[in-house]
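User: Some background: our group keeps a shared notebook of sequences we're curious about, and every so often someone picks one and asks for a predicted structure to add to the entry. Today it's my turn. The entry only has the sequence so far, pasted here. Could you supply the structure so I can complete it?
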Amino acid sequence: MTRNLKNTQEKSLRQRALEYLGKREYSAFELANKLKTYADEADDIPVLITDFKERGWLSDARFTEHIVRVRQVKFGSAKIANELREKGVSEELITEAVSEVRTSELENAAEVWRKKYNQIASDRNEWAKQARFLQSRGFGFDTIKQVLKAAENDND
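Assistant: Of course. Here's the predicted structure to add to the notebook entry:
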């Protein structure tokens, strides 16, 4: 008796997937991994994922756009690309996203630096510390050098 009651109260895989997608965007890979913990042997996750893609409920392109829009304010192209790879996004979409991020990467890096430091490095160790911070945020070394050099020139 309790076993039947438990089965009727459990959510279907489809319901769980819809709830997840109702909260935020997911990549197909990420959603499939999330659903695996609830799947039985009879459940066919790839079929469910394909159905959701066909209906337009799940889109790696839309997920990529969302990640880029949210992350580019704080992070550089390298960090965003790495996050997208971890979420199972295709290299084609990652390449498009990175090229979009790079158009404003210098301004974003300068803003991130300004929020954190807003004062030029007093010595080589401080310069290296600031550079490491920007590098940890996924900005390339050329961008980092431009930001720190511009800060020095602005101070002159």
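Suggested note for the entry: The CA atoms of residues 52 and 58 lie 5 Å apart. Confidence is low (pLDDT under 50) at residues 1-9.
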